[in-house]
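Researcher: Re-running this chain for the archive, since the previous output was lost when a drive failed. Same request as before.
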Amino acid sequence: MRKMAFGWYGGWGGRGYRWMFYLTGRPGWLRFGFSPGWLGRSPTGLPPTATYLMQTGQLPRFVSWMKEQWKRATTAATTTAAPTKEQEIAMLEEEAKFLEEQLKQIRQRLSELKKE
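Model: Regenerated structure tokens:
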């Protein structure tokens, strides 16, 4: 084991290799790729999920599924339709009613404070 002045396991205070977390923003078990923490624990140096998918031959199917999920997420975010004229009128009327009610409550509270 190498000696470090910073802490145990080559990191700060026993946290191990944090540079991959800082780089990707994901912990080793969630990252689908190389992580120094899996060296010696996994034959490939990959997390258990990646090793399982590679060893069982499910990796191509998983990759196509991930691509499909990404496609759905990006198209859903970019294809939001504008409201129709009737929907916009109804939305604005509801907002006007809400604001009128708030204004009524504000005026009521003001009159209460002036009476005190």
